[in-house]
Amino acid sequence: MDYVAALFAPTVMAVAFTFLIITIVRSQGGANKYKEDAAVDAALAAANSRPADPDRGEAARSAD
To answer: Membrane-spanning residues where (predicted)?
Structure first.
């Protein structure tokens, strides 16, 4: 019965990893994609709109 104990943990981890990958793949696209894209666009717009702070050593950003 030692072989059962030796194979139990890797089997549980493999099943958990499989379900993790399935969850990640299912959550991509669909209605969530537009919400995620909008959040990233808003964060980039906010980062590009704030002026550079010379006290923090930030270089001036170019408007690409």
So the answer is: 6-25
Q: Which pTM does this prediction carry?
A: 0.46
Through-space distance between the first and last CA atoms of the chain, rounded to whole angstroms: 65
Q: Are 52 and 59 in contact (CB under 8 A)?
A: yes
Structure tokens at 25: 């793949």
Residue 1 tokens, joined: 């019965």
Closest CA to 45 of 28, 59, 29, 64: 64
pLDDT digits (tens, 9 = 90+) for 18-60: 999 999 888 887 767 777 788 889 999 998 887 766 666 655 5
